[in-house]
Each structure stands twice: as structure tokens, then as C-alpha cells.
Amino acid sequence: MSQYPRDEFDKVPETSTRQGVHRERLIPARSSGVGLIITVGVLALLVGLAAYFVLPRLGIGEGNASPAASETPAVESSEAPADAPEETPSPTPSSSPSSSPSSSPSSSASETPSETPEPSPSAPVADRSQPVVVFNASGISGLGAGISARIGADGWTTALVGNWAGTPLQTSVIFYNGEAQRANAEELSALLGIPTLSESPEFSNVTVVAGPGFQ
């Protein structure tokens, strides 16, 4: 006798051979369904592992990389035209001669003003029309007349010839009054060889005083 309480499935003849039929069928049915699920799961796991590890080694997945390889030449072809324009400027030297003539006139025009010398103020010119006074301070007779004839031959006019009555001089001197007579005094200095020039307002005309040692 069983220790469990009796239920509706136990209401069968005790002599029947079908005792416990329902319980025996339920247990194998449940165990077979769980086993099928486990089997399918294991097979799916194996297929996934095979696809992840085995197929890349066989080269089956390389077909996906082919588009990338096909795109690489496209990139290179696109870069080739970019290089071509860099080579095209090489003919530019032919255009440079046309630009150089246009720039050279401008540079020459800019250089011309710098090269032209600025006009320097003209030096005062001697005026031989102004009369000259000649004094003899050397004590040599006739020296004043000789100086007058000497400057007269160079185009000068003598206003007065006489003997020096001022302070005794140690050398010959040419006196002039202001810058207006300076050019005449310098001209007579070069002509007579008298290097000493003296500006003095006491003389109205350029005055040549021949002192000792005048030649």
C-alpha cells in the first residue's frame, strides 16, 4: 500500500494492469521536452562559435573587406587629379616674361628720380664790372701800377692806385665789404696769389694792398 493519500487517479480496480499509467507518461514527456531544448541550445551555441572562429580563418569573411579595397583605388584616383594641377603651373615661366617687362619700367621709373642729382646752389660769380682799389704798402715804387695793369689784363677795372697810409702790414691783404664782394675778393686772390682775405666795412670797394714780399 502507498503512503500518499488517495486521489481520483487511484479509483481503478486494484487488479488492473493500468495502475499508475498517467504518472508514468507525464514524467517521460516532460524530460524529453527539456532535453530537446537543451540540445537545440547547445547546437545553436556550437554554430555561433563556428561562425565566429572558423569562418574568418577559411576566408569567407574577406568578401566584406573587398569594398574597402575597391574604395582605396577610388581615393588614389581622386588624389591624382589633385596632383595634376600642381604640375600645370610649370608653364607659368612663359607668362613671367610678359610680367617682367611691365615691372621693369616701373622700377626704372622709380630709380630715375633717386639717380638724378639734386641741383646744387650755384656759387657766386665774380663781377668784373665792379671797380678795384690798389694800394702799395711794400715800399717798392711802381708796384701799385703794375698790379693795376695785371688785373686790367684779366678784365678788371681799377678805380684808384696809391700808397697805403694805414697801419703797416706784414703781408699782402685783400679787403672786401660783405658777401656780395667775397666772390670778387676770391677771384683776385687766385689771380694775384694773395691768400689772406679780410672782411671789413671800412672799404666800399674790394681793395688790394700789396705788402712786403709781394711778387
From TrEMBL:
Disordered as annotated region, ranges: 1-20, 64-128
Ranges of Basic and acidic residues composition bias in the record: 1-13
InterPro entries, per the entry: LytR/CpsA/Psr_C
Keyword ATP-binding carried by entry: no
Gene3D superfamilies in alphabetical order: 3.30.70.2390
Record flagged with keyword Ribonucleoprotein: no
Pfam family for this entry, one: LytR_C
Compositionally biased spans, kind Low complexity: 73-87, 95-115
Domain LytR/CpsA/Psr regulator C-terminal: 131-214
Keywords tagged on the record: Membrane, Transmembrane, Transmembrane helix
Protein name: LytR C-terminal domain-containing protein
Species: Arthrobacter gallicola
